[in-house]
Amino acid sequence: MSPSRVRPSKKTGPVTSAYEGLAARGALLADPAQHEAAMLLDAVLAGVSAERPKGLLGKLFDKGEPVRGLYLHGEVGRGKTMLMDLFFDAVPIRQKRRVHFHEFMDEIHAGMAAFRKSKKGKDADPVEAVVKPIVKSGLRLLCLDEFHVHDITNAMLLYRLFEKLFANGVTLVATSNVVPDELYKDGLNRQLFLPFIDLLKSHVTVAALPAARDYRRMKFAGQHVYAFGTGPDVRAEMDRLWLRITGGEPGHPGVVESIGREIPVPSMAMGAARFGFADLCQKPLGSRDFVRIAHQFDSIIIDDVPQMGRTMSDAAKRFILLIDNLYDRGVKLGASFAVPLEQLGKDDRTAFEFQRTVSRLDEMQSEEYLGKGLREATEPPLSP
Questions:
Q1: How many structural domains comprise the chain?
Q2: Mean per-residue pLDDT for 312-319?
Q3: CA angle, corner 90, sides to 88 and 96, nearest 5?
Q4: In terms of domains, do 245 and 322 share one?
Q5: Which of 11, 117, 130, 233 is 20 to 30 Å apart from 103, CA to CA?
Q6: Residue 160 sits in the same domain as residue 204
C-alpha cells in the first residue's frame, strides 16, 4: 500500500507551536514559508506518533501502512536544519534517529563490508544484513540531514536500501539543497538511479522552502567574531555573540553522536554550539569526531583558547584538526583567544601545521567567509 498523504493541519501542532514561540521571543523572524513547512512536519509527527494497533494487526500496520514522510528542499540558510531540530525534539517516540545523510551511508557501507568478511557473507545479501538490525531495533522514523547524492556507490545502493526500509514501515524525513529529480544529476549510469527517485517520491511529500532571507548570513553580518585576552570582559563579548547567533536563546546541554559514543555539548541552540577549548582539544577526540560536530552545527563558539607550547602538543594537534574540519565545512567560528593569532602556536613540533591554521583562522573572521553558506560534505567512499 502507498503511504497516506501528508497535508498541513489547520490546528497548531508541536512543531508549529515551537516555531511560533521562537518568533514571539524574537529568536527568529517569522517567515510564511517556514511556518508552512512547520505545519507539514506536524502532519508527519501526528502520523508517526499515533498509537499502533497491538498484536498481528500492529505488525501488518507497520509493514503495510508506513506514514508518508517529508523531503524538504531549499537553498542554504533558509531554516531547514532549524525546522528539523524542532521536529525531531517534538516527536515523542523513542524509535527515532537523526543523522547526517553521509554519516548514515558511511555506516551502511561499513556494515556491508564487515558482513562480507564474515562467514555468513559469502552468499547472503549484505543489504538485507545491514537493514535487519535497523528493523529489529524498531526504528519508525529516520531523519536525514543534507540528502544529496554524487557518489556512484551510494547511487546504486539507495533503491535496494530504502525499498527494504520503507517496506518495514520506516518513515523518512529529509532535508536537501536540491529537488529529488536533481539528485545524482549528470551522474554515471544515472538511468539506473531513476527508480530510486520514483521510490522516494512515492513515500515522501516533496516540499520547497523558499524562505525570503538567508538567516545564517544575517546572524554574522557586521560582527566581530574573535576576542583576545582573558577575564570577564572577554567572556561578556562571547556571551553577546552567542545571544546574537542564537536569537537570544540561552541554549541547553546536548550531545553529538560519533561512532557509537556521545560527545557532550555544554550548550546548543538554533543550530549553534558553544564549547570550552578543553571540551574539544583536551579530550580524546579525533578528526572523525570533529567531522560529526561540523555536520551538526552551522556555527560554533570556542571559549578560552590558550597559547599552545610544548606541554600542549596533543591539544595543539587536535586544535589544528578541529579548525581544518570547521573550515572545510564552512562552519562559522566565534572564539576567545588568550593571545593574538600569530602567537597561538609556540611548539616547534607543530609550527608548520599551525601556520596553515592561523591562515585559516584569519580567513574565518573575514566578511567573505562569514557571508558564504556551508560547503557540501564529501561523500564517504565505499568501504573495502
A1: 2
A2: 94
A3: 45
A4: yes
A5: 117
A6: yes
